[in-house]
Fold:
Amino acid sequence: MRITEKDVLYVAALGNLELDAAETARFVADLDSILSYVEKLNELDTSAVEPMAQVLYDAPETLTWRDDHERPGFPQEKSLANAPERGAGQFKVAKVIER
Structure:
């Protein structure tokens, strides 16, 4: 699969990002390189490899559980103290998604 400038600009628009021509060209090259490597990996014969439900193995460090402990949260007044705008006990932010 080849990445085009149109693909990069579409994804940038989804993230509300503005890219100049140099950045767009760099991302086209970088993403194309990544996908080329993935295509190369797809050529590997994995028929002898047993499928896994998860990549973690049964090592002690991956099977360690911690107890959950309840503790007080951050007070609302303190968390909103430096907010430039607030209302109804919440942060107010500008609308970023148009529907």
Q: What stands out?
A: The radius of gyration is 23 Å.
